[in-house]
Amino acid sequence: MKILAVLGSPREGGSSDRLAEAFLEEAGQLGAHIERVRLSRLKYKGCLGCGRCKADVTGCVQRDELTPVLEGVQECDALILSSPMYFLDVSSQTKGFIDRCYGFCEPHMLGQPSRSRLAKGKAVVLMISQGADEGQFADIIGRYQYILDMIGFSSIHILRGCRLGFKKDAVARRDDLLQEARETARKIMRGEIH
Questions:
Q1: Which long-range contacts (CB under 8 A, 24 or more apart) does 20-25 make?
Q2: Are 23 and 127 in contact (CB under 8 A)?
Q3: pTM for the structure as a whole
Q4: Contact between residue 56 and residue 103 where contact means Cβ atoms under 8 Å apart
């Protein structure tokens, strides 16, 4: 199984990174081929809204350091997308990546039975870490589930770590979240999330 991990935190080693690493270590031990991408190290732009991906080309027309990552999304079996909550939403790096995935959507996608150019059967695990409790920012979960479904992921699993505060090692003291990340990896590798 090919797993692409897109790490959206600009703060390396923080809670969302550690959740992703718990997942990836387990999946790796079970034989997954893993590629990690740290968005904060790449130079790329967000969606230009040019519409060319819906007119005369398939996929994003921009060519930058995000291009091979988008190609990796097409080739992977599962995408791990991790991000902290920054200012009421996912990080700007994560949002820029998600916006560029708009190129995977078919023209006139709304109301169509097939809205995506991605191969069927791809899974995504969205890992969100936040300092606040579960009641805060809960509105983004449904929004990103809808967006990820529109992009073409047939199975969407959310792993949300709440009440983590702002210390980098906060998730290290939350064995329940780390165990959930490992169990999610086992489910992906067993084909229970696909």
A1: 20/80, 20/82, 20/127, 20/181, 22/178, 22/181, 22/182, 22/185, 23/80, 23/125, 23/127, 23/159, 23/181, 23/182, 23/184, 23/185, 24/80, 24/185, 25/182
A2: yes
A3: 0.93
A4: no
Which helix (H) or strand (E) segment holds residue 151: the answer is helix 139-151
Q: Cα(147)–Cα(90) distance, rounded to whole angstroms?
A: 13
Distance CA 100, CA 87 (A): 21
SS (HEC) of 43-64: CCCCCCCCCHHHCCCCCCCCCC
Domains of the chain: 2-190 (3.40.50.360)
Residue 117 is classified by DSSP as S
- Tell the residue number behind the tokens 């959740």, with chain if given: 19
For tokens 């509105």, name the residue.
139
- Amino acid occupying residue 176: D
Instruction: List average pLDDT for each run of 10 residues in the chain, which is 194 residues long.
Output: 97 94 98 98 95 84 96 97 93 96 83 79 95 87 92 92 85 93 96 78
Whole-number Å distance between alpha carbons of 160 and 2: 23
Report the pLDDT value the prediction gives residue 111, as an integer from 0 to 100: 66
* R_g of the chain computed on alpha carbons: 16
